Amino acid sequence: MEDQRRHDRAGVEPGNGQAAVPDSAGVEEASAETTVFVCVACGAALTGPLKRLPAVPEAPYYEWWEAEEMGPSPTTVPSGHYAIETEPYGAPLVVADVPGPVMPRRGTHFNVHGQPLVSQGPRGNIVIDPDDARGLETRHVSAACCGATPTGGLNQLCACGTLVATLSSDCCLPYELHLSPDHVRALPSPSPHSDPSA
User: Fold this and answer.
1) Cβ neighbour number for residue 24 with a 10 Å cutoff
2) Are 37 and 186 in contact (CB under 8 A)?
3) Which one, of 97, 50, 66, 88, lies nearest residue 3 by Cα?
């Protein structure tokens, strides 16, 4: 697999269904406000308080083939933060006219006939450090050597049984969790440094 770590950051607005995500695009400094993401179906908290980043960071360069132990790459989004993915991500994968990244921060991918594939999955996913998620269970994953891949779509279950996120954790892929904007809701959370009596 060609490990291409490029991301075309076109200024595309997230699609419908993103109203639950607070609008703080373009804020370079972390604001005092934080957000907790909950399951739309049952209301269970799926994260602790997270601060929004202005964009999804580039995935850290990681020589996974040289690692002494197989496991996930360093996380794309720093712990305690989230960012909104403006590009299509996850299934379905469709044949493209020219090779290119199959998804943001992922290299090229081809079908069994050698045709290049790209994602036509949803836009507006909430990208977090997988270690910041709470109470999720892996339902199914596409075949990989040592972790989950996003090519099969949603693969993380809330405790209520609702598929709410897509985990990417295989050693040769960016380490990310994409919460589905159609299956989670954003709730404001007070900053740990704020005065609750104010």
Assistant:
1) 15
2) yes
3) 66
d(CA 120, CA 102): 9
Backbone phi, then psi, for 26, in 5-degree steps? 85, 0
pLDDT in tens, 92-135: 999 999 888 999 998 898 999 999 999 999 999 999 999 999 99
Spatial separation of the C-alpha atoms in residues 155 and 138, rounded to whole Å: 6
In the numeric block, the tokens 């929004």 are attached to: 52
Structure token digits, residue 66: 């040289």
Give the Cα separation of 89 and 121 in Å (integer): 5
Instruction: For residue range 7-63, list pLDDT tens digits in order.
Output: 333 333 333 333 344 333 333 334 459 999 999 999 999 999 999 999 999 988 767
CA–CA gap between residue 161 and residue 130 (Å, rounded): 19
Distance of alpha carbon 64 from alpha carbon 159, whole angstroms? 32
